[in-house]
From TrEMBL:
This is endopeptidase La. The keyword Hydrolase applies. SUPFAM superfamilies: PDZ domain-like (SSF50156), Ribosomal protein S5 domain 2-like (SSF54211). It comes from [Mycobacterium] burgundiense. Residues 233-331 form the Lon proteolytic domain.
Length: 340
């Protein structure tokens, strides 16, 4: 073989080997970066993202964008290097995102449960802000419990055996005076329907010696109409704040965002308290790319948010749902809301 060709072949071998490593070898890292955004005042897959039925809603404009973080797993060495060099992606050890003691399915189910809880809390927080009165509200109905096909999630329980119940404490106190096999009469209100009454034969449960109804209840603001959120395959609790604002915007006159493109993130409790979230810098980048001029930042995330490039996008600090509404109204009036 010609010496020059041999030298070339020898030189190419490590290059080819490195190329194979880049393309075939996976690394124990997960990439986090800017994810898709969803306008909660718009539609998704042909349905309103925030769908309210059973009452009149107000027209809206502009955008209230829910922001997300993209996540890539099973990266090759080449992909990991490319994403890291982009400057927009963050590489984390995989064990931090997917703890080895949990399966991927366990983590996905937990994220979906958090998202569903955030939807419920968002609706409760919005209705509370709008001064809808509290009721003993059914959250869950056991598939094999006595209340199955009798009560539904979202029902308000008004009385048991003719005795009014205004709180979960009062409701539980009445049940504690029953025994398995007793028949109770439950007065309830159902959304978009007339009030009803149903007879339920109580069952037995190992965790109590009194009658078992098979429902989970909470004290929560109750309205006679339905609020549904039509987003799928989104996990985690951080959409709560924006969901609540969208509900308020659709149920009140005027435009909460004054026609602007507003984005944000934040968990929300049923009482309206806004909590911190992860991936704020990635969410800011996604919002900026989508043309947002205002980003609602949970107060506990302000320090981290200030470290991100936001190119003139206003970082508005919020502590709770009321302060978020006040901030948007201040902006609409030409004032200066609290900034990070």
């Amino acid at each position: 073989m010609n010496r020059r060709i041999l030298t070339l072949v020898v030189a190419l071998v490590p290059i080819l080997a490195f190329g194979v490593l880049l393309a075939a070898v996976t690394v124990p890292f997960v990439s986090l970066g800017p994810g898709p955004i969803f306008n909660t005042l718009g539609d998704f897959d042909g349905k309103p993202v925030v769908q309210i039925e059973g009452t009149e809603t107000e027209p809206t404009s502009g955008q209230l964008n829910m922001t997300t973080v993209s996540q890539r797993d099973a990266l090759t060495l080449g992909q990991a290097l490319t994403l890291w060099l982009s400057g927009r992606e963050q590489l984390l050890p995989r064990d931090l995102v997917y703890p080895p003691e949990k399966t991927r399915d366990d983590i996905d189910k937990a994220n979906q449960a958090e998202f569903k809880n955030s939807e419920d809390s968002a609706a409760f927080a919005a209705l509370g802000f709008l001064d809808y009165p509290k009721a003993v509200t059914v959250e869950t109905v056991s598939d094999d419990g006595p209340a199955k096909d009798k009560l539904q999630p979202g029902d308000a329980i008004d009385g048991v055996n003719g005795t009014p119940v205004a709180t979960v404490e009062a409701f539980t106190s009445l049940l504690e005076h029953t025994k398995p096999g007793d028949v109770i009469v439950v007065d309830y209100r159902r959304k978009n329907e007339a009030p009803g009454t149903t007879n339920i034969t109580l069952g037995a449960n190992d965790d109590r010696d009194y009658g078992f109804l098979g429902v989970g209840v909470r004290d929560a603001p109750w309205a006679p109409f339905t609020v549904d959120f039509n987003l799928a395959n989104i996990g985690g609790p951080s959409a709560g704040l924006i969901f609540s604002l969208a509900v308020i915007d659709k149920l009140t006159p005027g435009e909460l965002n004054d026609g602007r493109v507003v984005a944000g993130s934040g968990t929300i409790a049923g009482d309206g308290k806004v909590g911190s979230i992860g991936g704020i810098t990635h969410k800011l980048a996604a919002a900026h790319d989508a043309g947002a001029t205002v980003f609602l930042v949970p107060a506990d995330n302000c320090a981290e948010a200030r470290t991100a490039k936001h190119d003139g996008m206003q970082l508005v600090k919020v502590d709770d749902l009321g302060s978020a509404v006040d901030a948007l109204e201040t902006l609409s009036a030409g004032g200066e809301p609290p900034h990070c």
